[in-house]
Design a protein that fits this description.
Keywords: Signal. By secondary structure, this protein is mainly β. It has two helices and 13 strands; from the N terminus they run H-H-E-E-E-E-E-E-E-E-E-E-E-E-E. It has helices spanning about 5-15, 15-25, and strands spanning about 30-35, 40-45, 50-60, 70-80, 90-100, 105-115, 120, 125-130, 135-140, 145-150, 155-160, 165-170, 175-185. Strands 2, 4, 5, 6, 7, 8 and 12 form a seven-stranded antiparallel sheet that branches. A six-stranded antiparallel sheet has the order 1-13-3-9-10-11. The chain starts with a helix and ends with a strand.
Length: about 190
C-alpha cells in the first residue's frame, strides 16, 4: 500500500494538466464518505515553517449506527504514520446526527480537537450548526500555535509539531471538503 505522502505526487504525474492545475487555482476537493463503523483518513504534507490551511466542509448525509456518531476531524498534527493517533494535534471536529425536531434535517456539533503529549484535552461543544450548507474554516500554524476560525468562532491551541502534517478523518457520513489549500505564510 502506498503512503499518502506518495499519493498526491503520483496522482499529479498521472493527471498533470487537470488535477494539478485545478489544485493550484482552487485547492483540492475531498469526499470523505465512509460506512458506519468504519474510518477513513487522509494525511497531507505541510510546508516547513508557518502556514495556513483553509477550505470549506459540508455534510452530505449520515448513516445511523447504534454505537458510533457520524463525524469528521481536520487538524494539524505532528507527522506520523497514517492510521496511528498523533501525539500532538490541534483542529476541529464535526459530529452529526438526525434532528429529532425536524424531519430530514441534520444537527452538527462543532468542537475543538486537542491532544498534547499523547493526552486528549477536553473542550465543550463550541456551537451547534443546524442550517447545513458549506462551513468555511481556517487553521493558521504560526510560532507553535494553531489559530482556528470557523462558524464565527476563534480558538487558539499551542501545538508541538516540529514536522507538521494536515490530517483529515471521517466516519459514518459523507463529509465533503472543498477548496482545501495548504499555503506557506510569507
Amino acid at each position: 500500500m502506498l503512503k499518502c505522502r506518495y499519493m498526491l505526487p503520483l496522482i499529479a504525474l498521472l493527471y498533470p494538466p487537470t488535477l494539478a492545475a485545478a489544485a493550484d487555482r482552487t485547492g483540492i476537493d475531498y469526499g470523505c464518505d465512509t460506512a458506519p463503523g468504519h474510518f477513513s483518513e487522509l494525511v497531507l504534507p505541510a510546508p516547513a515553517g508557518d502556514f495556513v490551511v483553509s477550505g470549506e466542509v459540508e455534510l452530505g448525509g449520515i448513516t445511523q449506527h447504534e454505537h458510533f456518531l457520524s463525524l469528521t476531524r481536520l487538524g494539524i498534527a505532528q507527522r506520523g504514520e497514517p492510521g496511528t493517533s498523533p501525539s500532538d494535534v490541534a483542529g476541529f471536529s464535526l459530529g452529526a446526527l438526525a434532528d429529532p425536531e425536524r424531519r430530514n434535517r441534520l444537527i452538527q456539533g462543532l468542537g475543538w480537537e486537542e491532544s498534547a503529549n499523547g493526552r486528549d484535552v477536553e473542550h465543550p461543544i463550541a456551537t451547534v450548526l443546524r442550517d447545513g450548507g458549506k462551513t468555511a474554516f481556517t487553521l493558521t500554524f504560526q510560532a507553535g500555535t494553531v489559530t482556528l476560525r470557523m462558524a464565527g468562532l476563534e480558538q487558539r491551541i499551542a501545538l508541538n509539531a516540529p514536522t507538521p502534517a494536515v490530517r483529515i478523518g471521517c466516519s459514518g457520513a459523507d463529509f465533503r471538503y472543498s477548496n482545501l489549500t495548504i499555503a506557506p505564510i510569507g
